[in-house]
Specification:
Elements (H helix, E strand, L loop, with lengths): L15 E4 L2 E4 L12 H17 L14 E5 L5 H9 L4 E6 L12 E5 L13 E7 L8 H11 E12 L15 H15 L4 H15 L2 E11 L7 H29 L4 H17 L5 E10 L8
Parallel strand pairs: 3-4, 3-6, 4-5, 6-7
Antiparallel strand pairs: 1-2, 7-9, 8-9
Helix pairs in contact: 1-6, 3-5, 4-6, 6-7
Length: 307
């Protein structure tokens, strides 16, 4: 059990909230501003496929050595946890999320739990070999607290890894115009989340510092570029860009409808009108745009003080 408030997969946590034709989690309602319906689950799985391509098939960058206990924060559809269960059959994998949307048929060493990772953890100290979080920057309000809880829960020598696509439209060759609709979309989404007390830009930029301040050592950063669209000449990067474009395109409504209506006080109609130009830009942009991808991982010292 991760927190004192965690709930196993019972029917009472399968209630949902519906808003603007999208379905959201009911447990700890309002903590997460993106949907959990079938369309969003398909997008999440496409995102996983894209990240796997971008990272050359690596599920993690932390140098794991025969891990036996692994925790996946914000597991979503559970696809990463399931893949880890297959890769490390001797390990016990626990995926936690606010939504009980994970499949019932999973490897025997994989389990899922409905939980809010921003509550105080009751995970046994010094009990985990590896903690993983991916694409949680748009969700977490207090990263130093999460990192502190992870530090306590990890065994000495254990690893924490945080991976994120940064909500910024990057371009290195001047092909992106100042009024580019995709760049404006990323900026506006980040602003909307800030209104909801989530700074998804600052968090990605400060992971390494927060890890060091929490007591972690061997802090490493891996920075990659996920092209948006099929503009790269390299066939592998072109495929990454295709997956990324499809993932972003399919997710536009889910990304924006709640943050924009709750954070920026837009009407649903204003959101729909705004997305017209964004969709056109995704399909037709000649700009060589990419999303920065970052993996930051760090190790709990072997002689860390028991907590």
């Amino acid at each position: 059990m991760l927190s004192a408030d965690s709930i196993s997969m019972s029917e009472d946590v399968r209630d949902y909230v519906f808003e603007n034709s999208r379905r959201y989690h009911k447990y700890s309602e309002g903590r997460y501003h993106f949907p959990n319906d079938d369309a969003e689950q398909e997008r999440e799985d496409m995102q996983h496929a894209m990240v796997m391509l971008l990272c050359d098939g690596k599920l993690h960058f932390a140098p794991l050595d025969d891990p036996r206990s692994i925790l996946d924060l914000g597991t979503g559809t559970g696809i990463w946890a399931i893949d880890m269960g297959d890769q490390y059959p001797a390990a016990e994998i626990l995926g936690v999320d606010l939504s009980p949307i994970q499949p019932l048929w999973v490897p025997q060493n994989v389990q899922f739990l409905v939980d809010n990772v921003e509550e105080e953890w009751v995970q046994s100290p010094n009990s985990l070999d590896y903690i993983h979080a991916r694409q949680m920057a748009p969700s977490i309000r207090d990263w130093p607290r999460i990192i502190s809880e992870a530090f306590k829960a990890l065994k000495p020598g254990g690893w924490l890894e945080i991976q994120d696509l940064k909500c910024v439209a990057g371009c290195d060759d001047g092909t992106m115009r100042e009024d580019d609709a995709l760049a404006d979309f990323a900026k506006t989404l980040a602003e909307a989340l800030c209104k909801l007390d989530i700074d998804c830009i600052e968090s990605v930029e400060n992971y390494a510092r927060w890890l060091r301040e929490a007591g972690f050592m061997n802090v490493k950063e891996i920075k990659l570029k996920a092209p948006l669209g099929t503009w790269p000449t390299d066939p592998h990067q072109k495929k990454v860009g295709l997956y990324n474009r499809n993932m972003i395109y399919d997710g536009l409504h889910g990304f924006t409808i709640r943050p924009f209506t709750h954070g920026l006080n837009w009407t649903p109609e204003q959101v729909e009108v705004y997305l017209i130009d964004v969709r056109k830009a995704i399909l037709n942009s000649e700009a060589h745009i990419y999303l920065p991808f970052q993996s930051v991982y760090a190790q709990k010292p072997l002689r860390a003080r028991s907590l």
